[in-house]
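Margin note: ligand = zinc ion.
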Amino acid sequence: MLLIDSHAHLTDKSFAEDLAEVLDRAAFAGVERIVTVAESLDDSRAVQALVRAEEMLAATAGVHPHRADSWSDQTAAAIAALAGAGSIVAVGETGLDYHYNFSTRENQQRAFREQIALAKSFGLPLVVHCREAHADLAAILGEHLPLPAGGVVHCFSGTADDARRFLDMGLYLGIGGPVTFRKADRLRQIVAEILPRDRLLLETDAPYLAPEPMRGRRNEPAYVARAAERIAQILRLAVSPSEVAAASRHNAMRLFRLGPDIPPSSIAYRLRNALYINLTNRCTNDCIFCARTHECSLAGYDLRLPREPSAGEVIAAIAENLGIPIVGESHPTANVAEVVFCGYGEPTLRLPTLLRVGRWLKSRRIRRIRLNTNGHGSVVHGRSIVRELASVVDAVSVSLNAGNAADYARLCRPAEARFHFEAVGQFIAEAKTAIAEVAASAVACPGVDMDACRRFAEETLGVRFRPRAYVGR
Ligand code: SF4
Ligand SMILES: [Zn+2]
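Resulting structure:
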């Protein structure tokens, strides 16, 4: 069951200490992506920083009605700049909150109107908050119809008539923890009788509104499945939680334009007795023998990725391939000898995802985890990544392909001068100190001096040499 949490506030201070574990738990619970919603201009910037570091997150930018007193032309310009740079998937959250009135109603309405206009001008959807203000909210939205990129009224709390009005405007309704609450019969009835499946978005609104039985505690994206389970119960008509999750996932992908589906066999594919994981098609090299540039299939698997898969998607693809559950009882052994991060591209370019998937593999007690790399990871990330890798991989195989710097530059054609032969040698030397099995490999292609590679690997670096067959053009 793959899920998208369409609304969470991960920059909230309650996540400051343990966000990495929170995201691990989310990915391990089948959460593929999390739309991380901003509440103010400062928060929009914080969300941007977070999304750059964490590959399973997507960002919004906007000002919450609670913060509408801070709205100004400068705020609008800054949000427009983020929208123009293509770094957000929606504008919000914006809207009206007449329950708390932390900002004046006048300011809330102005900030809301201007954010609607901004979203429309950039063709972005809106993330809308509404509390005890449904009539005014509908009226203001009505002034701006149509909304071609749509939007979502998140954490929907209105009446059946409100729901119909928003659905008529083409909006989605966000449903989260409250659908599990004991006294939420009206909401459950709306979900059962009015909300079409193709307008449902699952959300947590973490850290707020944790579902039963966690109610009152800090909410987190891993709990988004609870709403799917409760909705499946309400719908009764033989709808499973995974069907609810799948419908909501497709809705979120459509609304926030999160990209096309990736066939699981392009992410995790079986060759002989190993399972290979394809995280990216990008690489810091352009080796003259690279199959990636002229051949995108391997043993019948299409390894072209239409976009890069998140940790949750990778985990789901592996689980499906191995026939093991994503969550629940861990299996002592899976039916492969090893799992290899490899694919058509350099896996360490996606370090957070690689590590997250690696931690999940460890939790599933996979026997042996190997990384095939070009050894540029530490240079890419500006720090040694060897210790981090050592926490999840048992073996590493580094593409050396040359016995000296000049041959390396000629054969591997690095994208930048910093990705030089010495950097690869240094990565191997460091890996040797932390990872049990380290090998250097070379592709037996015309022009590669296999003897020189072997000597350099064995004599200079002191690691095993692994010749690899040339696929040819
Ligand atoms: S390092 Fe590997 S993926 Fe990158 S260009 Fe060379 S052969 Fe291709
Ligand atoms: Zn929110």
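The mean pLDDT is 94.
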